C-alpha cells in the first residue's frame, strides 16, 4: 500500500469537500491502510511575522503532527524555514519519533529577515527531498509532501520553480496567512486548488485548519483521475497523492489549472521604447502602462513567451533582456521601475542595438522561436531607421511600429513589417493612445494559415490586432 494525503480544507465553514467525501468512500470500501509519507514543512520566518505569531505557527505544526504516524518506516518529517536565506532545521532522516520532531519544532528560532519563497521551494526540491536527506527512492512510490506556510508577498519568483517541484512529483500544500495573495498561493500549490490552497485572515485562524486535516490511505492501483471529478479539459495525470491537469502539445494550462486550455503564444518579444525629451515624464508613464497592458495578455515564462525591453534617447539602454524575467509580474515590475532618459531620439541606433544584441542567445533569445519587436516612438528620428529595420525584417523579426503625435508615417512604414495595415499604428496624441491601449487585442493564429506561401514549419505566431482611431478593425 501507499498513502494518499488530502486536506478537507475547503471547510472553513465546516463543510467537507467533494474530494474528501470521495476519499472517505474509498476508506469505507476497505481500501484504507496505514500511512507512509515523506513530509517536509516549509515555514516562512520573515520579519513581518511577529514573535507571538511565530509561536502560533509552531503550535500549528505540533498539532498537525498528531495526524501523522512518524517513524523511519512510516512517515518521515523534515522542516526548513526561510527568510532572506533558507535554514534547514532537520531533514527527513534526522528524527525517528514524533516526540523528537515536536521538540525540534519548539526549539526553532525566528529568522526575522526577508521572504525568499522561491528560493525555499528550490531548496525543498533540490535538497530536502533527496535520498541523502532521507527521502525514500521514488521507486517505492512514497508520496512526497511539502506544506508551505507563508504570510506575505515573495521577494522572488515562485511560479516556475513551484511548477518544477510539482513536475518532480512533490505534492505542495500552500497555506497563506494575512496579506499573501491567493494568486501567489495558487501558483505554488498542487491541483486541485480547492484541496491544496488555503488562505486565512490571521495567525489566530490558522488553528481552524487543524480540525479539518486528515490523512488517509488508498490502494496502490487507485487512479485518482477516475476517482475524482477532475474537470481537466485535455489530459488528467494521476499521482500517488493527487492528480494534475495537462494540455495537449501546442496548448498551455489556464490560470485555474484545470478547466480550460488555450493555444500557447510562443515567441521572443522585444519592446523598443522611445525615451526622448519630446515625450515628457507624464507621457512616458502612459507608455509604461501601454507596455504592461500587452504583457498582461501574454503567458510569460521561459518556456512560452520571453520579454525584453530597450529604451532609447540619445543613447540606447537595455532595461531587461529576454532571459532576465520568467514571469509577467517580474516584467511589469521592471517596466514600472524604468527611469525616463529624456534626451534625443536615435531610433536607428536603437534598431541596430535590437538587431545586434537583443535577439542574441547571450541575452536569452531561443533558436527556432518566432521573434517579434514592437517599436514605439513619438517623433522624427535623428538618424536613419531603414537600414537596421530592413536587416531585422530580413533576419525574420516581425516588426510592429507604433507612433504617436509627431511620429513620421514614412519612418513608421520603413520600420513595420508587411502588410503595413497589420503592423503599423498611429494615434494623434497620448490621451487617445491611452484609450486605444485598453482596446488592444492580442490574437493567436497559425503562421501558415496567414502567410501560406511563406510557411516554413513554424506552427504558431502572435499577431497584434490594433483598432485605429476610426475604430477600423483589420480582418484576418
UniProtKB/TrEMBL annotation:
Subcellular location: Secreted
Keyword terms of this UniProt record: Disulfide bond, Glycoprotein, Repeat, Secreted, Signal
Keyword Disulfide bond: yes
One Gene Ontology cellular component: extracellular region
GO MF annotation: an example: calcium ion binding
Keyword Glycoprotein among record annotations: yes
Name this protein carries in UniProt: VWFA domain-containing protein
Amino acid at each position: 500500500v501507499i498513502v494518499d494525503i488530502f486536506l478537507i480544507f475547503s471547510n472553513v465553514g465546516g463543510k467537507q469537500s467533494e474530494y474528501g467525501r470521495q476519499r472517505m468512500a474509498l476508506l469505507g470500501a476497505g481500501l484504507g491502510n496505514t500511512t507512509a509519507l515523506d513530509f517536509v514543512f516549509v515555514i516562512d520566518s520573515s520579519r513581518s511575522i511577529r514573535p507571538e505569531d511565530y509561536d502560533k505557527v509552531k503550535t500549528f505544526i505540533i498539532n498537525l503532527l498528531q495526524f501523522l504516524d512518524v517513524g523511519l518506516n512510516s512517515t518521515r518529517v523534515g522542516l526548513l524555514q526561510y527568510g532572506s536565506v533558507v535554514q534547514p532545521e532537520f531533514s527527513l532522516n534526522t528524527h525517528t519519533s514524533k516526540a523528537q520532531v515536536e521538540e525540534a519544532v519548539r526549539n526553532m528560532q525566528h529568522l526575522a529577515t526577508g521572504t525568499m519563497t522561491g528560493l525555499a521551494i528550490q531548496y525543498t526540491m533540490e535538497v530536502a527531498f533527496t535520498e541523502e536527506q532521507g527521502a525514500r527512492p521514488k521507486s517505492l512510490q512514497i508520496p512526497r509532501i511539502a506544506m508551505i506556510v507563508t504570510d506575505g508577498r515573495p521577494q522572488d519568483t515562485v511560479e516556475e520553480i513551484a511548477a518544477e517541484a510539482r513536475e518532480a512529483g512533490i505534492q505542495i500544500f500552500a497555506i497563506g496567512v494575512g496579506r499573501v495573495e491567493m494568486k501567489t498561493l495558487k501558483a505554488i500549490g498542487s491541483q486541485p486548488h480547492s484541496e491544496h490552497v488555503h488562505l486565512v485572515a490571521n495567525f489566530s485562524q490558522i488553528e481552524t485548519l487543524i480540525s479539518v486535516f486528515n490523512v488517509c490511505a488508498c490502494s496502490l492501483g487507485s487512479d485518482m483521475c477516475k476517482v475524482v471529478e477532475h474537470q481537466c479539459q485535455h489530459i488528467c495525470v494521476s499521482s500517488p497523492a493527487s492528480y494534475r491537469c495537462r494540455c495537449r502539445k501546442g496548448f498551455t494550462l489556464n490560470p485555474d489549472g484545470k478547466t480550460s486550455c488555450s493555444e500557447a503564444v510562443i515567441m521572443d518579444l522585444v519592446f523598443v521604447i522611445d525615451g526622448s525629451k519630446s515625450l515628457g515624464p507624464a507621457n512616458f508613464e502612459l507608455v509604461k502602462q501601454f507596455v504592461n497592458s500587452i504583457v498582461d495578455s501574454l503567458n510569460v515564462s521561459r518556456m512560452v513567451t520571453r520579454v525584453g525591453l530597450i529604451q532609447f534617447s540619445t543613447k540606447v539602454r537595455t532595461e531587461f533582456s529576454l532571459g532576465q524575467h520568467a514571469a509577467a509580474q517580474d516584467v511589469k515590475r521592471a517596466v514600472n521601475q524604468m527611469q525616463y532618459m529624456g534626451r534625443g531620439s536615435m531610433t536607428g541606433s536603437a534598431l541596430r542595438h535590437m538587431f545586434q544584441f537583443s535577439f542574441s542567445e547571450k541575452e536569452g533569445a531561443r533558436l527556432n522561436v518566432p521573434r517579434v519587436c514592437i517599436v514605439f516612438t513619438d517623433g522624427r528620428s535623428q538618424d536613419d531607421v531603414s537600414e537596421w529595420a530592413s536587416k531585422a525584417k530580413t533576419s525574420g523579426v516581425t516588426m510592429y511600429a507604433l507612433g504617436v503625435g509627431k511620429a513620421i508615417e514614412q519612418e513608421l512604414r520603413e520600420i513595420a513589417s508587411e502588410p503595413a495595415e497589420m503592423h503599423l499604428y498611429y494615434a494623434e496624441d497620448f490621451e487617445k493612445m491611452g484609450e486605444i491601449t485598453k482596446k488592444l487585442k492580442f490574437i493567436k493564429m497559425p503562421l501558415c494559415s496567414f502567410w501560406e506561401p511563406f510557411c516554413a514549419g513554424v506552427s504558431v505566431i502572435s499577431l497584434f490586432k490594433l483598432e485605429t482611431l476610426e475604430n477600423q478593425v483589420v480582418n484576418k
